[in-house]
Amino acid sequence: MTEKDTYKTITAPSKEVLFKDKNSKFFGYAFPVTSEEEIREHLETLRKKHHAARHWCYAWQVGTEDIQFRANDDGEPNNSAGMPIYGQLQSFEVTNILIVVVRYFGGVKLGVGGLINAYRTAAQMALEVSDIEERTVNVDYLLVFDYKNMNKVMRVIKEKNLDITDQKLELDCRITISVRKRDAEMVFGLFAQLYGVDIR
Questions:
Q1: pLDDT single digits (tens) 42-97
Q2: Where does the Impact N-terminal domain lie (predicted)?
Q3: Is the same domain home to 176 and 128?
């Protein structure tokens, strides 16, 4: 089995979605994230925006190979909010995403089953209105070479249609390329055999 080198994520924060059940309101949001710092910022923003709400439950998953995730019930009964939200991240097979569901209590208790359904549905709605795209898992290489070897290097980059993410072209040139993971070894080999080019 080949290792998977693609993943799905969302391109931009979702629109706000609303799920209602017995006067309780559940506002759902999905955000693209890559760090816990970004996650904290989104949570703080929503806590300010919905300062009168009762619960800000969420789940997030970050990473493509080394995956980290967390689910938080924020005072709701155990596993009635965070895990149902996290379950939607899994069923949509997405990563690098934070989903927050903000609850305004409507005076009628929903019971654990009702809560699970409400949080799951609000999370699902947030993902359904999001723009989900598939991306490749990439490996970055730094190429170091003398200016006289520029043509050789650029020829391989063009032939293999490689992405240049950074370059410094002086007497001593440095180019950073981003290569799809499944092609990484092959590309590394091409540059490694070029005389006067150092790839790392």
A1: 999 999 999 999 999 999 999 988 899 999 999 999 999 999 999 999 999 999 99
A2: 22-127
A3: no
